[in-house]
Design goal:
About 35% of the residues lie in helices and about 0% in strands.
Length: about 60
Amino acid sequence: MKPQLITEVPLQEKGSFHDTESIRLAKDFEDIVDLYKTLKDRLLSVNYWNYYASGVGF
């Protein structure tokens, strides 16, 4: 597997890479807004990434 080429991001010169994708389906717009807010909050809470990755935060 090769890394995705994103034009705004410089090419990686050394080290490994990891591309991760996830899909969530929602019934209506309110669910989409709630899921997006949760995802954004988790992404910006860098100090809690280990907690979320362990599966406890879901």
